Amino acid sequence: MNPIHWSLRWLAIGAVLLCASLKVWSETTQVLAPGYGPLKFEPPAAGSYQLPPLGSAADGAVIDMNGESFPLHDLTGDKLVVMGFIYTHCPDVNGCPLASYVMKQLQLRLLASTDLKDRVRLISLSFDPIQDTAAAMRDYSMHFRRQGFDWEFLTTKNENELQPILEGYGQYRKMFYNEDGDYAGTMSHILRVYLIDRDRRIRNIYSAGFLHVDTVMNDLRTLQMEPNQ
Amino acid sequence: MRITLLLVLLFSMSAIADETCMSPYMAKIEGQEDFVYVWTLGLEGVGDEQDKLVTVDVNPDSDGYGKVVHSISVGGRNEAHHTGLTDDRRFLWASGLDTNHIFIFDVHTDPAKPTLHKTITDFVAKSGGVVGPHTNYALPGRMMISGLSNNRDHGGRTAMVEYTNAGDFVKTYWMPTDDNLQGAVKSGQYADGFGYDVRVLPRRNAMVTSSFTGWNNYMMNLGTMMADPEAMKAFGNTVVIWDMHARKPTKVLDVPGAPLEIRCAWNEENDYCFTTTALTSKVWLIYLDEQGEWQASAVGDIGDATKIPLPVDISISNNDTRLWINTWNDGMTRLYDISDPFNAKQMWEQRIGEQVNMVSQSWDGKRVYYTSSLLANWDKTAPAGPDLQYLKVYNFDGEKLEQTMAIDFIAEKLGAPHQMRFGAHALYGEKVSAR
């Protein structure tokens, strides 16, 4: 592993942990995404609104932290799912680290929720199969996942297996290459986190300006109130 | 590496993103734009007479600078009007107010040569009768389309229609009316149900819509309409505040005289948006008061209202201190000081052409772009010449505009230019081989 890549990964993880532990969201010079602080509005009450389906949640071959390969659909259909695309070297605090930070908050809320904690699965799916091996995802998960909680950290075997998943979810990302043609270890992307119901339909899409644990929790409760969910 | 990181930041930050007037959910171009995409009305007797997306190279460092480098026609005339980019900036949605077609262009595969990716032809049927797709506004993974009319009476009552980025219909949200406020509070005299523009303040969970007029009017000859007292009554007088997350209207505000474009402040502490009224020539502030209530207040005058200057497009600076306001009828652009949002003061004005409609500025405000066309049946047809249907580009130093580029869209056999959106190779990671 290139030492620069390791540095980037620890920078990314450090950014999340820093925000999580010190709540520096209001003190940094960079404007941090709303998900790092309290909401400035009262979100609509769960069940008071609808979340119309936004299409089918795509399937594809994924690999878990143990290196086991299986269809992504094996992890949907039985529970409500909150799934975010990330890569562990992401250096932007308002990118993948935001997704992991909010999902970690969500994990805490769900653990405290008697009605939802066993009915929701979190998935962090890497879109960097080059660097994010199963072992790398396991290492990354140790900073976020409470033991026993249903939070899957997934990757894919290679670009060929990843691409259909990205296209299915409309998740754009562009890898950057050095002048010698090697992958530089970073990429441009737009942050997307998906809410998926038990019928494997996408019911909401959150981006950096919109992702917040309060609204995601209310959306989960809204779906739970629906028949068959 | 520095460039790489910049691009990572550029794409993954969505809290801040004509660059100053688009969805905050969208990646933005902070540096030099490479292209401007101009959605252009086809005109009888001009070129192929079809609506088209015209790509102009606007990067001074490019060999093609100042030239039309690409044009793609869509097979007919649709009353080409507004466009909007998806949140990932890969696709440009361009709608037609008459045929209700929405053309989705791929602008990422080769930013210099957009291609037609998909055409939505069942907008009216899918939406349950909405007519006149106007604003194409990016939400996370989705597009919100504001309508202008309906297929029952072709008047101004209308709705917003949500689509996925893939172009699949999601849901229709009708504007609140007196007979169905949908839970919204009617704060004044009006609840007309009209629509026009839509913008979002994510930090306040607020979606804001304005109101214009229906198909019967916007497809009518301008002189005929203005001489018809009944037609002149059929304009919107409202701005509606919506619960963005729930997609429900919460308050209907009186803003008389057809409030058009909405531009919201960027600063995290500035919980307000501006609009201007076409018929009453005023600047309006839509703001959250100290009690947490949304209010509307007229905060400035635009020209001599008795001469009907007809305010059209507006553009806010990234620091919320300046507002460009175009007045179509006299061809003027006017710069307002909005440092005090409750007291919008005109600083100076400059004539751009015989008519001027759209204005777009780069993120840093150093380049300002103008186009001329308003609506096919409202546009002026004389005097012929380079000031009638054009794209003009200016450098702006904070004090004056200095013209750097002009393209006569009639002489170039293109048509009548309307909305502009910027493109850049840097958005997509690397330059394509064609350049």
TrEMBL record, chain B:
Catalysed reactions, as listed in the record: methanethiol + O2 + H2O = hydrogen sulfide + formaldehyde + H2O2 + H(+)
Signal peptide, first to last residue: 1-17
Keyword Signal appears in the UniProt entry: yes
Alphabetical keyword list: Signal
Class of enzymatic activity (EC top level): oxidoreductase
Enzyme Commission no: 1.8.3.4
Similarity comment: Belongs to the selenium-binding protein family.
Protein name: Methanethiol oxidase
